[in-house]
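=== RUN LOG ===
request id: a7f3
mode: sequence -> structure
chains: 1
length: 412
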Amino acid sequence: MAERSLYFECNTGISGDMAVAAMLDAGADQAVLKAALDSLPLQGFKVEISRVKKAGIDCCDFSVILGHEHENHDHDMEYLFGKEEHSHEHHHEHHHGHRNLADVLSIIDSTQMTDKARSLAHKIFTIIAEAESKAHGVPLDQVHFHEVGAVDSIVDVIALAVCFDSLAVDKVFVPRLNEGVGTVRCQHGILPVPVPAVANIASAYNLPLHIMDEQGEFITPTGAAFVAAVRTDGALPAGFTIEKVGLGAGKRSYRIPSILRTIVIKWEEALDHDVICKLETNIDDCTGEALGFVMEQLFEAGARDVHYVPCFMKKNRPGYLLTVLCDREKRGDMERIIFTHTTTIGIRHTEMERTVLDRHIEERETPYGKVKVKVVSYYGKERVYPEYESVADICRRTGEPFTSVYNSAIGG
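=== RESULT ===
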Protein backbone atom coordinates (compact mmCIF):
# COMPACT_ATOMS: atom_id res chain seq x y z
CA MET A 1 0.00 0.00 0.00
CA ALA A 2 1.36 3.43 -0.92
CA GLU A 3 2.27 5.58 2.07
CA ARG A 4 2.44 9.40 1.97
CA SER A 5 5.05 10.58 4.43
CA LEU A 6 7.26 13.49 5.48
CA TYR A 7 11.03 13.37 5.66
CA PHE A 8 12.70 16.11 7.71
CA GLU A 9 16.35 16.58 6.78
CA CYS A 10 17.76 18.37 9.82
CA ASN A 11 21.35 18.85 8.64
CA THR A 12 21.43 22.28 10.28
CA GLY A 13 19.09 21.52 13.14
CA ILE A 14 15.47 22.53 13.49
CA SER A 15 13.46 25.36 15.02
CA GLY A 16 9.76 26.08 15.07
CA ASP A 17 9.80 28.81 12.43
CA MET A 18 12.05 26.76 10.12
CA ALA A 19 9.68 23.78 10.30
CA VAL A 20 6.61 25.94 9.63
CA ALA A 21 8.32 27.52 6.61
CA ALA A 22 9.45 24.15 5.25
CA MET A 23 5.96 22.67 5.52
CA LEU A 24 4.39 25.72 3.87
CA ASP A 25 6.90 25.39 1.05
CA ALA A 26 6.01 21.70 0.79
CA GLY A 27 2.34 22.43 0.26
CA ALA A 28 0.69 23.11 3.63
CA ASP A 29 -2.45 25.22 3.15
CA GLN A 30 -1.54 28.86 3.79
CA ALA A 31 -5.19 29.95 3.87
CA VAL A 32 -5.98 27.43 6.61
CA LEU A 33 -2.98 28.67 8.59
CA LYS A 34 -4.07 32.30 8.22
CA ALA A 35 -7.58 31.48 9.43
CA ALA A 36 -6.18 29.75 12.51
CA LEU A 37 -3.79 32.57 13.38
CA ASP A 38 -6.47 35.21 12.79
CA SER A 39 -8.61 33.44 15.38
CA LEU A 40 -5.88 33.47 18.05
CA PRO A 41 -7.09 35.32 21.18
CA LEU A 42 -3.82 37.29 21.27
CA GLN A 43 -2.89 40.73 20.07
CA GLY A 44 0.30 42.57 19.17
CA PHE A 45 1.71 40.28 16.51
CA LYS A 46 1.66 39.79 12.79
CA VAL A 47 2.98 37.04 10.56
CA GLU A 48 5.02 37.43 7.41
CA ILE A 49 5.57 34.61 4.90
CA SER A 50 8.16 35.49 2.30
CA ARG A 51 10.94 34.15 0.06
CA VAL A 52 14.58 34.56 1.06
CA LYS A 53 17.93 33.34 -0.26
CA LYS A 54 20.21 31.10 1.81
CA ALA A 55 23.57 30.38 0.16
CA GLY A 56 21.88 31.23 -3.12
CA ILE A 57 19.03 28.77 -2.52
CA ASP A 58 15.44 30.04 -2.63
CA CYS A 59 13.67 29.26 0.66
CA CYS A 60 10.43 30.04 2.43
CA ASP A 61 10.65 32.26 5.52
CA PHE A 62 8.07 32.35 8.31
CA SER A 63 8.37 35.27 10.73
CA VAL A 64 6.36 36.38 13.73
CA ILE A 65 6.73 40.13 14.28
CA LEU A 66 5.74 41.59 17.64
CA GLY A 67 4.82 45.14 18.52
CA HIS A 68 7.13 47.73 17.04
CA GLU A 69 9.98 45.33 16.45
CA HIS A 70 10.81 44.62 12.83
CA GLU A 71 13.03 41.58 13.12
CA ASN A 72 13.64 38.58 15.27
CA HIS A 73 16.64 38.77 17.60
CA ASP A 74 17.87 35.53 16.08
CA HIS A 75 19.45 37.74 13.41
CA ASP A 76 21.75 39.17 16.08
CA MET A 77 24.80 37.00 16.64
CA GLU A 78 25.93 39.11 19.61
CA TYR A 79 22.57 38.44 21.21
CA LEU A 80 22.97 34.74 20.54
CA PHE A 81 26.46 34.39 21.83
CA GLY A 82 26.16 36.33 25.06
CA LYS A 83 27.05 40.00 24.63
CA GLU A 84 23.52 41.19 25.52
CA GLU A 85 21.35 40.32 28.48
CA HIS A 86 18.35 38.73 26.74
CA SER A 87 16.82 35.33 26.70
CA HIS A 88 17.72 33.06 23.79
CA GLU A 89 15.19 31.94 21.20
CA HIS A 90 11.87 33.19 22.55
CA HIS A 91 12.86 36.50 24.04
CA HIS A 92 9.67 38.54 24.19
CA GLU A 93 8.20 37.22 27.41
CA HIS A 94 9.09 40.39 29.29
CA HIS A 95 6.58 42.20 27.07
CA HIS A 96 3.75 39.77 27.70
CA GLY A 97 4.30 38.22 31.12
CA HIS A 98 4.90 34.63 32.01
CA ARG A 99 2.40 31.92 31.17
CA ASN A 100 2.00 28.44 32.63
CA LEU A 101 0.92 25.35 30.72
CA ALA A 102 -2.77 25.80 31.57
CA ASP A 103 -2.67 29.36 30.18
CA VAL A 104 -1.11 28.19 26.92
CA LEU A 105 -3.50 25.26 26.49
CA SER A 106 -6.45 27.58 27.09
CA ILE A 107 -5.22 29.83 24.28
CA ILE A 108 -4.87 26.81 21.98
CA ASP A 109 -8.40 25.65 22.86
CA SER A 110 -9.76 29.06 21.82
CA THR A 111 -8.10 28.94 18.42
CA GLN A 112 -9.84 27.84 15.21
CA MET A 113 -8.26 24.56 14.07
CA THR A 114 -9.12 20.90 13.62
CA ASP A 115 -9.25 18.61 16.64
CA LYS A 116 -6.22 16.77 15.28
CA ALA A 117 -4.20 19.99 15.00
CA ARG A 118 -5.31 21.12 18.46
CA SER A 119 -4.27 17.79 19.96
CA LEU A 120 -0.84 18.11 18.34
CA ALA A 121 -0.39 21.67 19.64
CA HIS A 122 -1.28 20.44 23.14
CA LYS A 123 1.25 17.64 22.79
CA ILE A 124 4.08 19.93 21.65
CA PHE A 125 3.64 22.37 24.55
CA THR A 126 3.25 19.56 27.06
CA ILE A 127 6.52 18.02 25.86
CA ILE A 128 8.24 21.37 26.36
CA ALA A 129 6.67 21.82 29.79
CA GLU A 130 7.84 18.38 30.89
CA ALA A 131 11.38 19.18 29.74
CA GLU A 132 11.40 22.53 31.55
CA SER A 133 9.91 20.91 34.65
CA LYS A 134 12.82 18.47 34.76
CA ALA A 135 15.40 21.15 33.98
CA HIS A 136 14.27 23.45 36.80
CA GLY A 137 13.16 20.81 39.29
CA VAL A 138 9.62 22.15 39.70
CA PRO A 139 6.21 20.48 39.30
CA LEU A 140 4.68 20.57 35.83
CA ASP A 141 1.89 22.97 36.85
CA GLN A 142 4.44 25.44 38.22
CA VAL A 143 6.49 25.74 35.03
CA HIS A 144 6.52 29.27 33.65
CA PHE A 145 7.38 29.50 30.01
CA HIS A 146 10.22 31.98 30.07
CA GLU A 147 11.51 30.72 26.73
CA VAL A 148 8.49 29.22 25.03
CA GLY A 149 5.42 30.91 26.49
CA ALA A 150 5.67 34.22 24.67
CA VAL A 151 3.35 35.17 21.84
CA ASP A 152 5.81 34.32 19.07
CA SER A 153 6.24 30.80 20.42
CA ILE A 154 2.52 30.20 20.81
CA VAL A 155 2.11 31.29 17.21
CA ASP A 156 4.97 28.99 16.14
CA VAL A 157 3.46 25.94 17.83
CA ILE A 158 -0.05 26.54 16.52
CA ALA A 159 1.39 27.10 13.03
CA LEU A 160 3.35 23.85 13.32
CA ALA A 161 0.25 21.89 14.30
CA VAL A 162 -1.98 23.44 11.62
CA CYS A 163 0.57 23.01 8.81
CA PHE A 164 1.38 19.43 9.77
CA ASP A 165 -2.32 18.54 9.91
CA SER A 166 -2.83 20.18 6.51
CA LEU A 167 -0.24 17.92 4.86
CA ALA A 168 -2.13 14.78 5.97
CA VAL A 169 0.78 12.33 6.06
CA ASP A 170 0.96 8.79 7.43
CA LYS A 171 4.53 8.71 8.73
CA VAL A 172 7.34 11.14 9.62
CA PHE A 173 10.96 10.17 9.05
CA VAL A 174 13.68 12.00 10.99
CA PRO A 175 16.98 10.08 10.76
CA ARG A 176 18.89 12.49 13.02
CA LEU A 177 19.08 16.02 14.41
CA ASN A 178 22.32 17.92 13.96
CA GLU A 179 23.33 20.14 16.89
CA GLY A 180 26.24 22.50 17.47
CA VAL A 181 28.67 23.00 20.34
CA GLY A 182 29.55 25.80 22.76
CA THR A 183 27.27 27.88 24.95
CA VAL A 184 24.36 30.25 24.58
CA ARG A 185 22.99 32.99 26.81
CA CYS A 186 19.43 32.34 27.99
CA GLN A 187 17.01 33.79 30.54
CA HIS A 188 18.79 31.80 33.23
CA GLY A 189 22.36 32.63 32.20
CA ILE A 190 24.93 30.99 29.97
CA LEU A 191 24.01 27.39 29.19
CA PRO A 192 25.76 24.63 27.26
CA VAL A 193 24.52 23.47 23.87
CA PRO A 194 22.26 21.53 23.60
CA VAL A 195 20.35 23.54 26.19
CA PRO A 196 18.74 21.55 29.05
CA ALA A 197 15.23 21.56 27.56
CA VAL A 198 16.50 20.14 24.26
CA ALA A 199 18.66 17.56 26.02
CA ASN A 200 15.71 16.47 28.19
CA ILE A 201 13.40 16.12 25.18
CA ALA A 202 16.03 14.15 23.27
CA SER A 203 16.45 11.84 26.26
CA ALA A 204 12.73 11.35 26.93
CA TYR A 205 11.82 10.67 23.28
CA ASN A 206 14.96 8.91 22.12
CA LEU A 207 15.77 11.52 19.48
CA PRO A 208 18.96 10.74 17.51
CA LEU A 209 21.41 13.62 18.00
CA HIS A 210 24.59 14.25 16.04
CA ILE A 211 27.01 16.85 17.40
CA MET A 212 28.69 18.92 14.70
CA ASP A 213 31.93 20.85 15.05
CA GLU A 214 30.02 24.11 14.67
CA GLN A 215 29.58 26.85 17.26
CA GLY A 216 25.98 27.66 18.08
CA GLU A 217 22.57 26.27 18.98
CA PHE A 218 20.99 24.57 15.98
CA ILE A 219 18.11 22.79 17.77
CA THR A 220 15.59 24.89 19.69
CA PRO A 221 13.21 23.50 22.34
CA THR A 222 10.23 24.11 20.05
CA GLY A 223 11.94 22.32 17.17
CA ALA A 224 12.89 19.36 19.35
CA ALA A 225 9.39 19.13 20.83
CA PHE A 226 7.82 19.17 17.36
CA VAL A 227 10.04 16.29 16.23
CA ALA A 228 9.29 14.36 19.41
CA ALA A 229 5.56 14.83 18.83
CA VAL A 230 5.40 13.75 15.18
CA ARG A 231 8.40 11.48 14.45
CA THR A 232 7.36 7.90 13.71
CA ASP A 233 10.47 6.42 12.09
CA GLY A 234 14.22 6.90 11.81
CA ALA A 235 15.52 5.07 8.77
CA LEU A 236 14.03 6.08 5.45
CA PRO A 237 12.37 3.44 3.25
CA ALA A 238 14.73 1.73 0.81
CA GLY A 239 13.08 3.46 -2.12
CA PHE A 240 10.56 6.26 -2.58
CA THR A 241 9.34 8.92 -4.98
CA ILE A 242 9.40 12.65 -4.21
CA GLU A 243 6.06 14.44 -4.41
CA LYS A 244 7.14 17.86 -3.11
CA VAL A 245 10.19 19.53 -1.55
CA GLY A 246 9.99 22.35 1.00
CA LEU A 247 12.86 24.54 2.19
CA GLY A 248 12.52 26.53 5.41
CA ALA A 249 14.98 29.31 6.18
CA GLY A 250 16.50 29.80 9.61
CA LYS A 251 17.03 33.30 11.01
CA ARG A 252 20.65 32.79 12.03
CA SER A 253 23.78 33.18 9.97
CA TYR A 254 26.20 30.37 10.65
CA ARG A 255 29.15 29.13 8.65
CA ILE A 256 26.84 26.58 7.09
CA PRO A 257 23.49 27.80 5.69
CA SER A 258 20.58 27.42 8.11
CA ILE A 259 18.04 25.51 6.01
CA LEU A 260 15.54 22.85 7.00
CA ARG A 261 14.42 20.64 4.13
CA THR A 262 11.24 18.62 4.29
CA ILE A 263 10.27 16.23 1.53
CA VAL A 264 6.83 14.77 0.93
CA ILE A 265 7.53 11.22 -0.21
CA LYS A 266 5.48 8.29 -1.43
CA TRP A 267 6.62 4.73 -1.02
CA GLU A 268 5.23 1.26 -1.17
CA GLU A 269 4.77 -0.29 2.24
CA ALA A 270 7.15 -3.20 2.59
CA LEU A 271 5.64 -6.65 2.77
CA ASP A 272 6.20 -8.56 5.97
CA HIS A 273 9.00 -11.11 6.03
CA ASP A 274 9.60 -13.91 8.46
CA VAL A 275 11.48 -17.19 8.75
CA ILE A 276 9.87 -20.63 8.87
CA CYS A 277 11.22 -24.14 9.17
CA LYS A 278 10.55 -26.72 6.46
CA LEU A 279 10.68 -30.41 7.44
CA GLU A 280 10.72 -33.22 4.86
CA THR A 281 10.88 -36.98 4.98
CA ASN A 282 10.22 -39.79 2.49
CA ILE A 283 7.97 -42.64 3.70
CA ASP A 284 7.23 -45.89 1.82
CA ASP A 285 6.23 -48.38 4.52
CA CYS A 286 3.54 -46.62 6.53
CA THR A 287 -0.23 -47.08 6.24
CA GLY A 288 -2.55 -44.39 4.95
CA GLU A 289 -4.40 -44.36 8.28
CA ALA A 290 -1.14 -43.68 10.15
CA LEU A 291 -0.24 -40.86 7.79
CA GLY A 292 -3.68 -39.30 8.24
CA PHE A 293 -3.30 -39.46 12.02
CA VAL A 294 0.15 -37.86 11.80
CA MET A 295 -1.28 -34.94 9.84
CA GLU A 296 -3.93 -34.34 12.51
CA GLN A 297 -1.32 -34.46 15.28
CA LEU A 298 0.99 -32.04 13.45
CA PHE A 299 -1.76 -29.45 12.93
CA GLU A 300 -2.89 -29.75 16.54
CA ALA A 301 0.72 -29.12 17.63
CA GLY A 302 0.86 -25.88 15.65
CA ALA A 303 2.11 -26.74 12.19
CA ARG A 304 1.45 -24.00 9.64
CA ASP A 305 0.97 -26.49 6.82
CA VAL A 306 1.25 -30.24 6.25
CA HIS A 307 0.98 -32.08 2.97
CA TYR A 308 1.88 -35.37 1.28
CA VAL A 309 3.11 -35.74 -2.31
CA PRO A 310 3.19 -39.17 -3.99
CA CYS A 311 6.69 -40.17 -5.11
CA PHE A 312 8.74 -43.17 -6.20
CA MET A 313 11.58 -44.27 -3.94
CA LYS A 314 14.33 -46.91 -4.05
CA LYS A 315 13.57 -49.92 -6.24
CA ASN A 316 10.60 -47.98 -7.65
CA ARG A 317 8.62 -48.45 -4.46
CA PRO A 318 5.67 -45.99 -4.27
CA GLY A 319 5.84 -43.70 -1.26
CA TYR A 320 5.00 -40.25 0.03
CA LEU A 321 7.03 -37.10 0.60
CA LEU A 322 5.81 -35.59 3.87
CA THR A 323 6.38 -31.82 4.11
CA VAL A 324 5.73 -29.76 7.23
CA LEU A 325 5.99 -25.97 7.58
CA CYS A 326 6.30 -24.63 11.11
CA ASP A 327 7.80 -21.90 13.25
CA ARG A 328 11.42 -22.46 14.20
CA GLU A 329 10.60 -22.99 17.85
CA LYS A 330 8.08 -25.72 16.90
CA ARG A 331 10.60 -27.85 15.01
CA GLY A 332 11.34 -30.17 17.92
CA ASP A 333 7.63 -30.84 18.54
CA MET A 334 7.06 -31.64 14.86
CA GLU A 335 10.02 -34.04 14.71
CA ARG A 336 8.87 -35.91 17.83
CA ILE A 337 5.41 -36.48 16.31
CA ILE A 338 6.86 -37.68 12.99
CA PHE A 339 9.35 -40.05 14.60
CA THR A 340 6.71 -41.38 17.03
CA HIS A 341 3.91 -42.08 14.57
CA THR A 342 5.65 -42.93 11.30
CA THR A 343 8.32 -45.41 10.23
CA THR A 344 10.82 -42.78 9.08
CA ILE A 345 14.36 -42.85 10.46
CA GLY A 346 15.45 -39.41 9.22
CA ILE A 347 14.01 -35.89 8.75
CA ARG A 348 15.52 -33.10 6.65
CA HIS A 349 15.03 -29.53 7.84
CA THR A 350 15.70 -26.12 6.29
CA GLU A 351 15.07 -22.59 7.52
CA MET A 352 13.48 -20.48 4.81
CA GLU A 353 12.63 -16.79 4.47
CA ARG A 354 9.20 -15.98 3.15
CA THR A 355 7.22 -12.90 2.14
CA VAL A 356 3.73 -12.73 3.61
CA LEU A 357 0.76 -10.46 3.08
CA ASP A 358 -1.05 -8.72 5.93
CA ARG A 359 -4.11 -10.70 6.98
CA HIS A 360 -6.74 -10.88 9.69
CA ILE A 361 -9.84 -12.92 10.54
CA GLU A 362 -13.27 -11.31 10.72
CA GLU A 363 -16.92 -12.39 10.60
CA ARG A 364 -19.18 -11.41 7.73
CA GLU A 365 -22.94 -11.53 7.57
CA THR A 366 -24.46 -13.74 4.86
CA PRO A 367 -28.05 -14.83 4.11
CA TYR A 368 -27.11 -18.10 5.81
CA GLY A 369 -25.55 -16.63 8.96
CA LYS A 370 -22.16 -15.31 10.05
CA VAL A 371 -19.13 -16.75 8.26
CA LYS A 372 -15.52 -16.36 9.38
CA VAL A 373 -13.28 -15.12 6.57
CA LYS A 374 -9.59 -14.40 6.18
CA VAL A 375 -9.07 -10.89 4.77
CA VAL A 376 -5.74 -10.38 3.01
CA SER A 377 -4.43 -6.92 2.05
CA TYR A 378 -2.26 -6.42 -1.00
CA TYR A 379 -1.24 -2.89 -2.05
CA GLY A 380 -4.50 -1.38 -0.90
CA LYS A 381 -6.73 -4.13 -2.27
CA GLU A 382 -8.43 -6.87 -0.28
CA ARG A 383 -8.85 -10.56 -0.95
CA VAL A 384 -11.39 -12.57 1.01
CA TYR A 385 -11.02 -16.28 1.79
CA PRO A 386 -13.89 -17.94 3.72
CA GLU A 387 -12.74 -20.32 6.44
CA TYR A 388 -13.61 -23.93 5.57
CA GLU A 389 -14.88 -25.02 8.98
CA SER A 390 -17.13 -21.96 9.28
CA VAL A 391 -18.70 -22.62 5.87
CA ALA A 392 -18.98 -26.34 6.49
CA ASP A 393 -20.72 -25.79 9.84
CA ILE A 394 -23.44 -23.69 8.18
CA CYS A 395 -23.86 -26.28 5.43
CA ARG A 396 -24.31 -29.06 8.00
CA ARG A 397 -26.94 -27.07 9.88
CA THR A 398 -28.86 -25.70 6.90
CA GLY A 399 -28.29 -28.22 4.15
CA GLU A 400 -27.29 -25.40 1.78
CA PRO A 401 -24.74 -26.09 -0.97
CA PHE A 402 -21.16 -25.44 0.04
CA THR A 403 -20.51 -23.17 -2.98
CA SER A 404 -23.58 -21.03 -2.19
CA VAL A 405 -22.43 -20.31 1.36
CA TYR A 406 -18.81 -19.87 0.27
CA ASN A 407 -19.64 -17.40 -2.49
CA SER A 408 -21.99 -15.39 -0.30
CA ALA A 409 -19.15 -14.84 2.18
CA ILE A 410 -16.93 -13.29 -0.47
CA GLY A 411 -19.75 -11.22 -1.91
CA GLY A 412 -20.25 -13.40 -4.97
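=== NOTES ===
The radius of gyration is 31 Å.
The chain is about 35% helix and 30% strand.
=== END ===
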